[in-house]
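Aim 2, interim progress. The first record below pairs a target sequence with its structure tokens.
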Amino acid sequence: MTAPHASTTPGVATFGNCNLQNQRLFRLNPGICVEQALEHASVLMGCANTLTRLGGLEEGSSTTAWAAHYLGDMAKAIIDDVTLGMQNHD
């Protein structure tokens, strides 16, 4: 069994579409330990899942759906950046 290598985020993944050109507003920071980044992504996904469940019970409100969408976008960016960091480390 091999010991896990200490990979970090490269800081290239972006999230948060804005304006008519669909530019990305935010970027992940480089140098974050992948284990810590994935833990944060898990927390964000847990919040998004809770919001989608609550949103399914609401009628006529899109607030929780949009909140879940933004949390999912952030979690995806973290996972994408971690994946790039792990690929570049090999």
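The second target in this work package is listed in the same format:
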Amino acid sequence: MGQEFALEVDTVRQALNGAKLAGCNSMGQIARAEGQFSGFHNCTAVVCSIPE
């Protein structure tokens, strides 16, 4: 979400009732389909919820 990443994290935190989070962003996935040249598919956020 680019500049809106903080909003994305806050939305996840709200959905998990304020649970503590840990995570990271990947630099994107590469997967080519027939006829596709770049194969780049944006970024992925990996999030782990830490229950009390």
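The helical segments are 5-15. This observation will shape the mutagenesis plan for the next reporting period.
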